[in-house]
Amino acid sequence: MRTLITGAAGQVGHDLIERLHAQGDEVFATDMRLPASPDPRAQWSTLDVTDGAAVEATLDALRVDRIFHLAAILSARGEANPALTYAVNQGGLYNMLEGCRKTETRQLMFTSTIAVFGPGLPDPTPDAVSLEPTTMYGVTKASGELLGAYYARRYGLDFRGVRFPGLIAASLPGGGSSDYALYFFIEGLRSGRYTAFCRPDTRIPLMYMPDGIRALLELSAAPRERLRRSIYNIHAFSPSARELAEAVAAAIGGADFDFDPDPVRQGILDSWPNRLDDANAREDWGWRPEFDVEATIHALIPEVRELLRTHPEAFADAHAG
Ligand SMILES: NC(=O)c1ccc[n+]([C@@H]2O[C@H](COP(=O)([O-])OP(=O)(O)OC[C@H]3O[C@@H](n4cnc5c(N)ncnc54)[C@H](O)[C@@H]3O)[C@@H](O)[C@H]2O)c1
């Protein structure tokens, strides 16, 4: 299968390339800027998704079977620059959808987020609730879900996506509000201390990256007739920030973690659900998480250790942003 990824130089793209290549796909990786050492398992080219003509030319030239559209500005960075977030997340998706329509590309996979939800929702939060996001990131992702569903109805595009929880992986976070979770690992192992930018009772859905990647691949491969929706909640675990800090500290033999909430990021975190109800994903395409919080901690510690050993410079000032 010929598969295109946008925003492929980011956290999710990094792991997705590896998995797609392992299952035999021919992978075309694109991003605004190429990474310093591009993964040789993909064919790389630059693509700015805000450039509609470039998007169409790329899709026309490559004639791929499916696209994983990852390019986005995430929540915390998004609040620092709402105009850019609108251009990339909203305009970029529109360009991709139009590109798919014009080139008759069959499937577009979308990565939505818990940020589409707003405060005051039932716990756990089901798929079909009123979406009242509080951030530009959430607004663009919520309208992206609707826009994709429109292209599916109107033009027959096979548009599918998951609402990712905060993803935890051994890589440099991309400016999401859930980044505190990864910094317990990075700073715990690097310096033995970390002051999280959230309250200790903060509780949001989190997921180990390999489960998130597997969800994308399984949803992409699911028979169309089994799917009753285009966008699905997926859930793995929801520890409080304190519970996660204590579990990571215990697993690495002790660390000095404390909490100093940043009002902007805390406000974003407080607007998100505690838990997602993913019953539809389980029923329609057999979604099951493989990693609970303990399994994630166990798997991630050696990965983060290795990353710190091989790329110490990338993390020297990591949590400042
Ligand atoms: N990481 C998470 O916890 C998380 C949670 C929920 C949803 N998601 C979604 O998953 C997707 C991937 O997230 P990620 O963690 O890899 O993010 P990331 O920030 O690590 O990567 C995003 C990539 O998009 C690229 N990009 C930005 N503007 C672009 C443009 N104009 N044209 C092309 N590329 C551009 C960036 O260069 C970057 O490489 C995003 O759509 C995000 O909204 C991620």
Strand and helix layout:
Layout: E1 2-6, H1 11-22, E2 26-31, E3 43-46, H2 52-62, E4 66-69, H3 75-80, H4 82-103, E5 107-113, H5 136-155, E6 158-164, E7 166-168, H6 179-190, E8 193-196, E9 206-208, H7 209-221, E10 231-233, H8 241-251, E11 256-259, H9 263-270, H10 279-285, H11 293-310, H12 312-315
Parallel strand pairs: 1-2, 1-4, 2-3, 4-5, 5-6, 6-10, 7-9, 8-11
Helix pairs in contact: 1-7, 2-4, 4-5, 6-8, 6-11, 8-11
Bound molecules: nicotinamide-adenine-dinucleotide.
Summarize the structure.
The chain is an alpha/beta fold and 321 residues long. The chain has twelve helices and eleven strands.
Spatial strand arrangement across the major sheet = 3-2-1-4-5-6-10
> What characterizes the major β-sheet?
7 strands, parallel
- Compute the separation of the termini in Å: 38 Å
Q: How much β-strand is present in the residues?
A: 15-25%
Indicate the radius of gyration in whole angstroms.
19 Å
Please provide the count of β strands.
11
Unreliable residue runs: none
CATH class of the largest domain: Alpha Beta
Which class best fits the helix and strand makeup?
alpha/beta
Count of DSSP H/I helices? 12
CATH architecture of the largest domain: 3-Layer(aba) Sandwich
> Helix proportion of residues, in percent?
40-55%
**Basic shape:** globular
CATH topology heading of the largest domain: Rossmann fold
Helix and strand run: EHEEHEHHEHEEHEEHEHEHHHH
Give the number of domains. Answer: 2
Mean pLDDT across every amino acid position: 95
Bound molecules: nicotinamide-adenine-dinucleotide
The CATH superfamily label of the largest domain reads NAD(P)-binding Rossmann-like Domain
